[in-house]
Amino acid sequence: MTSATQRHDSAATAAAKPVLDWFFALAALAVVGVYIRAIYFTPLEARQGAAQKIYYIHVPSAIASYCAVTITALASIVFLWLHDERADRLAEASAEVGLIFMSMVLVTGPLWAHNQWGAWWVWWDLRLTLSLFLWFLIVGYLVLRGAIEEPAMRGRYSAVLAVLAALLIPFIHLSVYFSAAHMHPDPIVLQPSKPKLPPEMLLTFLLGIGAFTWLCLALIRSRYRLGVLRDEVALLEAEHASR
Amino acid sequence: MIDTYGPYHAAYIIAAVVYAAYSFSVWWRAKRARERLRHARRDLVDR
Predict the structure, then answer these.
(1) pLDDT digits over A18-44, tens only?
(2) Considering only CB atoms, which chain B residues are within 8 Å of A215?
(3) Nearest residue on chain B to A120, judged by CA atoms?
(4) Which positions in chain A touch B4 (Cβ < 8 Å)?
(5) Alpha carbon distances (Å) from B1 to A56, A57, A141, B9
């Protein structure tokens, strides 16, 4: 059997699978569990009050978006190396999911900031500006993919952009150390010394990271399956047109 | 303690709605793709 036929058969098998399956359902339940724990079973912070609870969805969404962008970059490197269409499809899927999570970071962050800083956005803060820049890069990546019809060229150009976008992630995380003048707080848990959170809050936060990352991976899996379906449709329609 | 429930509720509701809407959009696009796939397979067999 040729590799093209094998690919066609594996794509047909993958197309038969449901896009939202048990893995997604369990991830959604885990996120619901984190919501319940954060709302009803996690104490209020004394100074900030209820707004501090935004932390349990804001930071986990940020970490999940970094995971998604990292997967996009790694899949892009694999595509540049092996020219495997599955890697390109995975890169596209994780970029789209990463955009959703990054958008939530950029929505929940200002809601919290306005309450604490008296401003929705502070342009000179490096972490905020770099996060927005990463969001624009992911949008640019997806727009670029939509603009190029030829699959190999689309995969190659977008892969280069994805790798460059992922290079921003360590800079975003470390940006609070680069400048003394910043509004965004320093890391509380993901830092060299001991976490500065009480145990109940720390547990909610860690569960949040687990649940949101799981949801992110489940959505990437689902979006990948949607990509398989679309490629299968495109293949059959091209075959139909050539007859 | 100051009342900061407004942004807290807004953030939780917006996040839940957006994640649910995106999940629905993936399911919906897959449903449409499956319909197109069925049509494309039928058209190929008819020929």
Answers:
(1) 889 999 999 999 999 999 999 999 999
(2) 19
(3) B7
(4) 48-52, 115
(5) 20, 22, 44, 17
